[in-house]
Amino acid sequence: MKSRKSEIKRTTKETDVTVSVNLDGTGKTITNTGIEFLDHLISALGKHSMIDLQVKAKSRDKIEHHLIEDTAITIGSAIDKALGNRTGITRFSYASVPMDESLAEASIDLVRRPYYNLTLLTKRAKIEGMSKEDIEHFFQSLLQNLNSCIHITVKYGDNDHHKIEAAIKSLAVALRIAASKDKKQKGIPSTKGAM
Predict the structure, then answer these.
(1) CATH number at residue 129
(2) Total number of domains in the chain
(3) Are 60 and 13 in contact (CB under 8 A)?
(4) What is the pTM of this model?
């Protein structure tokens, strides 16, 4: 299997974002978006997926929503690009992750057809300075651009921070397994012969 790395630079009138990924890394993550909770979520994604992830994101228009959206789009696109045609991967995975009183589950199929279903169960208008709406949009933009079929469900919990952290970690663990190399898989893991 060839190198599973990519770098994507997304520059618009609103933002300037650069993301590099190594799917076969150790979870080393360097992120600088200027939004602490967003950096925390990205760091958790890299650490628990074991993907080396470098993210540099700068706002041009000072609108946080645009920065959060474009960062998620670029991360999702970079991981999709690094996966290539998905030859030799495990493809399917599932993870259930607790965070104190909260529990989240993620199911993933790395088929190249974008679909997502997201249930976060958050209640507060803001979590660690980020609006509920922007957190939801971060997940939505990331999942759409991963070009895969992904379901994330927060099953229950009381603390919104814990719910969101359980959700990102469940995605990370499921992604780690689904993207892993399967020694028994000699080609594209599909009866169609293409993803």
Answers:
(1) 3.30.230.40
(2) 1
(3) yes
(4) 0.95
